[in-house]
Prior knowledge:
By secondary structure, the protein is α+β, with helices and mostly antiparallel strands.
Amino acid sequence: MAIFYEVFLSAFAVLGVILAVLEATRVSRAKKTNFICLCFDKELLDGAKPDMLIICRTDAEQEEVIRRVCADEERKVYIKRW
């Protein structure tokens, strides 16, 4: 029975290590993500919360999102990239 408890605790330890590694990779990927902010008022670019914050993986995605948002919009759109 003692061996069963050791195996059981070891399984939880391995699971904890795996989850910690997955969380570390998720955080490191999030730091590399590109953001674009779309604002309809120029003052919002200086520090206030933007109208839209869009997370894109590639430049092609960014251009497609900007094109779709700006297509039917009469207001001027200000873009800030991070």
